[in-house]
Amino acid sequence: MKLAKILFSGLFIAFAATNALAKDNLTLNHFVNQALTSGITEVETAKLALQKSTSEEVKTFAQQVIDDHTSANKDLAAIAKKKSLKVISKAELLNSAKTFTIKQEDGESFDEAYAKSQVKAHQDVIELYNRAALLSDVELAGFATENIPKLTH
Q1: Quick check: 123 and 21 in contact, CB under 8 A?
Q2: Which residue spans within 26-126 are E strands per DSSP?
Q3: Are 128 and 36 contacting, i.e. CB atoms less than 8 angstroms apart?
Q4: Sequence-distant contacts of 78-84: CB under 8 A, at least 24 apart
Q5: What's the N-to-C CA distance of the chain in angstroms?
Q6: What DSSP character marks residue 4?
Q7: With bands split at pLDDT 50, 70 and 90, how would you rate the model's confidence at 93?
Q8: How far is 95 from 11, CA to CA, in rounded Å?
Q9: In sequence order, which residues have a C-beta less than 8 Å from that of residue 111 and are 6 or more positions away?
Q10: How many Å apart are CA 62 and CA 42, to the nearest integer?
Q11: Average pLDDT over residues 133-151
């Protein structure tokens, strides 16, 4: 339960703080590629959590991350294809995801390191999605708006 509180409070703070930063200019291609890269990274680190975690709570959270981000990635890729946006290749996406590692400090468990990495990753992606919610493209702005609540797990 302590881990869930850390995750929830960190994500709530991220959501509130990033609304103020949301008015930056953001291109459609930048949003799509950043969101897809982040989504793939989230899925890959969640798969690692399913393998390495000793906590059922963390494993449940990781499975939710996999389900939510896999679905969002498919939806976003379909929108990008329909709009003929340039999307980086799946190989490039996977390569970007592999460069992210969960770093553990001395004495820190995998579960603690995963929780910290999830808070930071979700802070960044919530900021991106808040900015995307203001895009002039109604479909991508709607996609971002619809998915923000899922990012606050």
Answers
A1: no
A2: none
A3: no
A4: 79/32, 79/139, 79/140, 79/143, 80/32, 80/36, 83/28, 83/137, 83/139, 83/140
A5: 14
A6: H
A7: confident
A8: 26
A9: 3, 53, 54, 55, 58
A10: 9
A11: 94
Cite the DSSP H helix spans in 83-109.
90-98
Mean residue pLDDT of the chain comes to: 81
How far is it, in rounded angstroms, from Cα 72 to Cα 74? 5
| Positive or negative: CA dihedral 102, 106, 110, 113 | negative
pLDDT digits (tens, 9 = 90+) for 48-65: 899 989 899 999 999 999
Position with higher pLDDT, 26 vs 76 = 76
Q: What are phi and psi of 42, to 5 degrees?
A: -60, -45
Query: pTM of the prediction?
Result: 0.76
How many angstroms separate the CA atoms of 9 and 13, rounded? 6
Q: What tokens were used for 107?
A: 């004495």
Question: In angstroms, rounded to a whole number, what is the distance separating the alpha carbons of residues 62 and 108?
Answer: 19
Q: CA–CA separation, 56 vs 124, rounded Å? A: 26
Tokens of 149: 């609540």
